[in-house]
Amino acid sequence: MNEISVKALAKINLGLDVIRRREDGYHEVRMIMQTIHLFDRLQIKKKREKEITLRANLPFLPVDEHNLAYRAAAMLQEEFGLEEGIDIELEKHIPVAAGMAGGSTDGAAVLYGMNEIFELGLSKQELMERGVKLGADVPFCIMRGTALAEGIGEKLTQLPPMVKCPVLIAKPQISVSTRTVYERLQLKDESAHPDIDRLISDIRAKDLEQIAAHMGNILETVTIPLHPEIEKIKTCMKEYGAVNAMMSGSGPTVFGLFADIKDAKLALGKLKEQGIARQIYVTDIYNNRRK
Fold it and tell me: Which of 97, 163, 205, 256 is most buried when burial is the number of CB atoms within 10 A of its CB?
C-alpha cells in the first residue's frame, strides 16, 4: 500500500466539567466526548524523498510543525527510522479553532494512515499512547465513539454508543482563546458543574430527552458572557426544535441535538436567516469505531 484516504472526524462534548486547577497549571476535567459525522479528509502517500510535505485547501492553515498532522508524521518517521517521505493533502471542513478537535483529529488520522501504509503494526492502544504526546484530544480521536475523558483529557473510558440523532453545528464569526477561558474560570459555583455520572447513566439508557436535559459545559460560564452571540445561537436552535443546544469545548461552536432531521434543517435555515453563524452543518452522531 502506497497511499490511503482517511476521514478525520470531529468531536463534541456532551458534558464538560472542570474539577480543579492542578499545581502544574493544567486543569483536571471530566468530559463526555462524542464523535460526530463531520470530517476532514486526508490523502496520505509515500514519497521517495525523505521529507514531509503538507498541503491544505485553506490558505491560512500552517503546513509545517505548527500543524498536528505534520508533527504526527514527523514523530512516526523519526521513531521508526522511515527512509521514505510522506505527502499529506488535507481537505479541511471541520471549523478551525472551534472546540471540535479539528487539529487533533487530523493528527490522529495521520497516525492511523501511516500505521497502515508503512505496516508499522501498532495497535489502537499503541497509537493512542503516541497520540497523547501530540495533544490531550488525539487519543480520543483515535478511539472514536462515546467516551469519558478524565485527567487533562487523556484518560479515556469507552462508553456504550450514544443514541443516534441529528446534530446541528453552528460556529459564529468569532475566535475564542482556550487559555483565556480556563484562566478566567471560577470553580466555586456548584450550580455550574454538570452531573457527568447522571449523563453517563442517560447514555447507557439511550434516552435522548434525558441526555439533553443533563448536558452541561462549565466553560459556558466564561465564554458566553464574553460572546453573547453564542447564547443567541443556542436559543435559536431550541426555538426551532433542538431538544437542547450547548457550546462544545471552550467554544465558540454550538451544537444542537434533534429528534427529527426536519427540525434540524429548519433550524439551519433560521440561523442562516438571522446571520448569527458563519459555518453551519447538519450531521449526526457517529458510532462506528475504527478497528
Answer: 256
Give the pLDDT confidence score for residue 76 in this predicted structure: 98
Tally of CB atoms within 10 A around 100:
25
Q: Which of 34-52 are b and which e, b meaning 16 or more Cβ less than 10 Å from the residue's Cβ?
A: bbbebbbbbebbbeeeeeb
Number of alpha helices (DSSP H) and beta strands (DSSP E) in the chain = 10, 11
**Which residue out of 11, 92, 171, 234 is catalytically annotated?**
11
For residues 211 and 201, the answer to whether their CB atoms sit within 8 Å is no
Q: How far apart are CA 116 and CA 74, in angstroms?
A: 16
Partnered with residue 16 across adjacent β-strands are 31, 217
**What DSSP character marks residue 285?**
B
Distances (CA, A) of 21 to 178, 183, 240: 14, 10, 38
Q: Do strands 3-21 and 216-217 pair parallel, antiparallel, or not at all (unpaired)? A: parallel
Question: Is the pLDDT at 71 greater than 90, yes or no?
Answer: yes
Q: How far apart are CA 67 and CA 54, in angstroms?
A: 9
Q: pLDDT (tens digit, 9 = 90+) per residue, 143-183?
A: 999 999 999 888 999 999 999 999 999 999 998 888 889 88
Q: How many CB atoms lie within 10 A of CB 257?
A: 27
The cell numbers describing 62, all together, are 500552517
Per DSSP (E only), the strands in the chain are 3-21, 27-47, 52-56, 85-91, 146-150, 155-158, 166-171, 216-217, 244-247, 254-257, 279-284
137 catalytic? Reply is yes
Question: Per the residue annotation, which of 17, 40, 106, 137 is the catalytic one?
Answer: 137
Q: What is the mean predicted confidence (pLDDT) over 111-118? A: 98
Q: 197-225, pLDDT tens digit by residue?
A: 999 999 999 999 999 999 999 999 999 99
Burial of 78 (0-12, 13-18, 19+ CB in 10 A): exposed
